[in-house]
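Posting for a labmate who doesn't have an account.
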Amino acid sequence: QVQLVPSGGGLVQAGGSLRLSCLVSVSGTVFHIDDVAWYRQAPGHQRELVAELTLRGVTNYIDSVKGRFTISKDYAKNTMYLQMNDLKPEDTAVYYCNARITTGWGRTAASDNYWGQGTQVTVSL
């Protein structure tokens, strides 16, 4: 069973910082975290990709967060992060972690996309 467990959301004033974490928990088999990403969805808007980090270490960010947000992952802790600095009210949204995870090995290996539950980030003026 694969679970992505997010933490770190909350309320912060504009200009402040938050770090979102997402623990990847897998039971019953070996696994590897491949590509990871963070999405967000603001009220009345579609879910959008905020940042992604590929297995090869390539990062991509939407223009509005470039220079302020940093995506990373720690294989030893099975955790992915989104460091958010200089937060703005327009960053207010529910943030979702997403990961492509390979479970099993050899001929039984399977790769699937998984989502964590959302975590609320609210930035006040």
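Reply:
Got it, the structure tokens are right above this. The mean pLDDT is 96.
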